[in-house]
Specification:
PH-domain like, 2 domains, 6-stranded mixed sheet, 287 residues, alpha+beta
Amino acid sequence: MSWYPEPDETLIHRGRATFATGRAAKVAGMRWFRDESGRDIAADLPGWPEAPAYTPNSDAAARTNKAVWGIGKAVVVVAALAVNAVSNANPDVDLGDGARPTDPAREVEDFPVLVAAPGTVARTLPYQLDPDRRDKLFTTELAVTDRRLVILGIDNGPGLKPTQVLWEAPREVLGSVVKHAYAGGGADVSLMFSDGSWARLRLESTAVAIQLVHELCPPKRVEMTELALKKLKSRAEPTKLEHTWEAVSQDDGSVLAQRVMRLEGRELRGKNYQVTKWIETDAAGEA
């Protein structure tokens, strides 16, 4: 049995969400849960099962891992040794999208996905959001309505099982939402709660991240300029569908935009575009 919003409630989005995972080589595949002073609190969270304890890779190991990821297996060993021998580069590396960390302490040297003092909202989030603490056949989803945020749990094992409501809170608990530029697939957002606690989640796609920041955090919306719209018209696939544009600022100051098309009452989102320079040059009166 699935989950549905209340009859007087409008569903904005529903899709997969988990705690995020580190991208930089020192913390790739890792995540931590901390209090406001940086102390690991995973063992203090009531009802949370144990999970692997991560230790950041050394700089040398991180450089080796970078070489392993970036080249074919046939030359892995030689290239890894070469990188280790001659490179003192930061293990935060470009994986092809040009993004760089905006907070190296929390994206390169460490990777907290939950920072919360005792008694704060983020500490109430369900452990099932952590892939290390749940069954491999169990998935979690984030549902956003016009009234609340809901974390849903779906057991995909044998037999038909009802969708579980693992957590919910009114939208008013949110102070802000941050879209991270330096993230796997560009799909990381941080939910910044009004009490100062926060959690970093990985969503289904960049399109969903843009949508939810636009919906949940009006201050991060960016008005499209005439220049930006003109440039996008020449780059985006032509469409006869009714459409608008969503544009939001990321934590590195860049701006992403995506077209929202409407077909038979449904909203369709596709490719996203960097529009930062067009908005800046338009504001400066440049072509």
